[in-house]
Amino acid sequence: MSRLLRVAAGVVLAAAAVALVLVLPHWLSDARAAEFARAGCFFIAILGLNLVTGYTGQISLGHGALMAVGAYTTAILTADHGFRDLWTIPLAGVVAMTAGFALGLPARRLSGLYLGLATFAFAVAMPAILKRFSGLTGGSQGINLFDKALNRSTGALGHVHVLGRTLATNDFLYYLTWGIGLVLAGAAWVLVRGRVGRAFRAVRDSEVAAASSGINTGLYKTLAFAISGFYAGVGGSLFVLVSNWFVGPSTFGFDKSLLLVVGAVVGGLGSLAGMALGALFIQFVPGWAGNLSNARGAPSVFFGAAIVLVMILLPGGLGGLLRKLTEPLTRRLYTRSE
Amino acid sequence: MLLATDWAGVAQQVVAGLSSGGTYATLAVALVLIYRATGVVNFAQGELAMFSTFVAWTLTQHGFAYWPAFVVTVLASFAGGIALERVVVRPVEGAPVLTIAIVTIGLFFVVNGVAFWIWSPEVKSMPNAFSTRPIRIAGVAFSISDLGIIGVSLLAVLLLWLFFRFTKLGLAMRAAGLNPASSRLTGIRVSWTIALGWGLATALGAVAGLMAAPTLGSFDQNFMQPVLLYAFAGAVLGGIDSALGAVIGSLALGVFLNLLGTYVSWVGTDLRQAAALAVILGVLLVRPAGLLGTAVVRRV
Amino acid sequence: MPLLELRGVAARYGALRALRGIDLSVDQGEIVAVLGANGAGKTTTLRAISATVKTSGELVFAGERLPRRPEAVARAGIAHVPEGRGTFAQLSVDENLRLGAHVRRDRAGVKADYDRTLERFPILAARRGQAAGTLSGGEQQQLALARALMQRPRLLLLDEPSLGLAPLVVADFFAVVGELNEQEGLSVLVVEQNASLALASSERAYVLEVGRVAVAAASADLQRHESVRRSYLGY
Question: Which among A112, B169, C49, C123 is placed 20 to 30 Å from A272, CA to CA?
């Protein structure tokens, strides 16, 4: 009986999440909707990062660069190759997945901080590489789809017609990002419960034990990076649309990679719902910080203080808090991380 | 061909590289210190060093000469580091390593913001630490400043080494880093050794910042970020748990970067960072624990 | 008044109750053994004393409440040699010994003890500069004991000293402990799986079962009573 109750509770929670996403824009101003859409992009990227760090226990300081790969794929295909921006989203995911795979190869040899450095190098090198290959990437100027491919940029003119209705662009982007986000979250949820997810956790908890159980640890480590690359790529691709259809080399500097890690840990590693909270945190808290005071440096101080406070009060992140609150209902539904 | 090479020029560039490498090394040892005590890389180490440097700068604006300001700042940084650990790190002492790492990221933002709040964003300049005259050694002109920085950096690291090797407290700190549980049974107050580690690391950071600042004609609140990047890279190259490795790795990195920048013209500043990191990565793939790091043999 | 007294001490690891209220005492100059099967709570008892696990109940040492932090317990005069010895493998033998004296202020006394320790354990003297991790099991056990002695404790807690060691080595070890007890009045509380050895080396013994004291008696009596031995000690 209690198992049925738990499954039912899980379904109710999932339905509530979907309902919330559907209904929220009614209360949001246009500008707010755009901000939520950005948070949605982070949500997707952090979902991927969560697979690498939360489930497989590897450090990545390079996911911002993977977002950049996705972003530029979308920008280049739309601007120079006649694609409609929306169709490039899955392609961006695939290209970033390959980059993620490549990034995951050193992961087989390196661990901990050494891997951190490798991913860090990737993040730092990306803007420089993007500037250098200016023929393809538009160099320091970046790519502006508004200029180059207005007719292929969905919603650039202010409205989008979909399913017989007309939506304001920002609302459309909000639904697009969070819709894709929920779908990908569902996919992650399924992945995590299955064989692959168990293998990930085995690698995180004890590589030696995992290997002696016959798990090809190198394969799973690289797989985690590849899958997270797909997620980051999709997130990056959507980010272009949400950023007024523009991307430049400094859009995804090291600070974005760092921000993603903050979002993942503050959100609560290993908690899918936490990832949404983490994304909202990194999107909105810097803005609130700016509103609190006009003093120079204030946004930084408040954002940093918020991070420190959350970590001190909730070492398991916001997702950890959420889990504690809903524990009686969903005891077995969310996969636990340590 | 050999005779035609400008050996004097190379020597000068090597020394210049060792000089910047020296500042990286000092900061790198600070990173290793905290890493060994807590298992975490302190993302805020550079910003704390920056803060110390700005404090010193303020002192110089109020009549202090460089070296008196240096001494006061380093001592104050030591105290500040301890205080910071007690307030910000202690509450999360038992938490997972990643949590503590994120706290240091938060600290990065706070310190950076506070620095912008206290001091204006206009660039500043620091009085020179050493004379700007060149000195001739074996007929080659070297900058006293470069030699001085190398000297101070190595001296700071040496003093630290002596402390750890020969004093009771230093031994206790080493033990606490290696095996906190056993250390407590021996009566060591592990919590305080961590605080002390932070104090020393912050003081070292101040030294690094104070060495670096005069060499940059002008600097602002973001000036330590590249230094942190190179210090981290140098420390990892040398083996993140080895202070000696951190020194060697950072010095090598400094020399490499300088030679790269001087002799390979198509590599701009941006790509230089990437190139340095790429080389380090190459080394790591061959020696996954860094040059002098101990490959961790964990009991299953 | 006993040197160490435990009254109704309980301890838990999360939801697992390892000790359910034990009463135990050690008099000045005694060697007391704690025996029992795996999981009975022997190691937890020592951890309760050295405050490396959270406890409830009364713990009194030399007439005062025992502090609840390991560093403070060490300062109070209790040396705990944990399971697995707890030596600092990466530090040298010499450094391990120096660490043992961390709580002491009397430099002359420490120096004298250091010299005496090297005399008493010539193998350690020979391997002074070596990393502790390179010593054999038996040598590490000696080092662990020597380090604890450097503390000049009033009470020595030994957790399964015979684990993983050859019988001759173990016999030597207990002989040394016996000497220390006779010559210097060192009180010892020793946890052991090897019941016959422990009973032969101690005056009194407690047998634990599932976190409680099942039997408390003189060691000689326990050795004699076959039925008690069979049911609780398996031999």
Answer: A112
What are residue C17's DSSP bridge partners?
C12
For chains B and C, tell me whether 3 or more CB atom pairs sit within 8 A of each other: yes
ipTM of the complex: 0.89
Please report whether residue B293 resides in a domain. no
Give phi and psi for C208, each to the nearest 5. Answer: -100, 150
| B3 — pLDDT class (breaks 50, 70, 90) | low
- Let me know if residue A290 belongs to a domain: no
Q: What is the residue range of C145's domain? A: 84-151
Judge: C91–B175 Cβ closer than 8 Å, yes or no: yes
Task: Please answer whether residues A56 and A202 qualify as being in contact, where contact means their C-beta atoms are separated by less than 8 angstroms.
Answer: no
Q: C132, C151, C170: which is the final residue of a domain?
A: C151
Residue ending a domain, choose from C123, C151, C179:
C151
Over the stretch B110-146, which tens digit does the pLDDT of each residue have? 999 999 999 988 888 888 888 878 888 887 888 888 8
The per-residue pLDDT for B4 is 60
Q: How far apart are CA B148 and CA B211, in angstroms?
A: 9
Distance (Å) from the alpha carbon of C86 to chain B's nearest alpha carbon: 6
DSSP letters for A128-157 = HHHHHTHHHH-GGG-EEHHHH-GGGSTTTT
What is the C-alpha to C-alpha distance for residues B21 and A80, in angstroms, rounded to an integer? 44
Residues of B in contact with C151 (CB under 8 A): 186-187
- Based on the domain organization, do C69 and C181 belong to the same domain? yes
Q: Which residues contact residue C143 at a Cβ distance below 8 angstroms, ignoring those fewer than 6 apart?
A: C85, C87, C93, C96, C97, C121, C124, C132, C135
The percentage of chain A sitting over the pLDDT mark of 70, rounded to a whole number, equals: 94
Instruction: For chain B, say whether A120 makes contact (Cβ under 8 Å).
Output: yes
- Both C69 and C21 in one domain: the answer is yes
Asked, for residue A279, whether it belongs to a domain, the answer is no
Q: Kindly report the pTM of this predicted structure.
A: 0.86
Domain of A221?
2-252
Q: What is the pLDDT of residues A324-338, one digit of tens each?
A: 776 665 554 444 443
Q: Which domain holds residue B151?
A: 20-226
Contact present, B110 and A301 (Cβ < 8 Å): yes
- Measured CA to CA, the distance from residue B251 to residue B231 in angstroms comes to 10
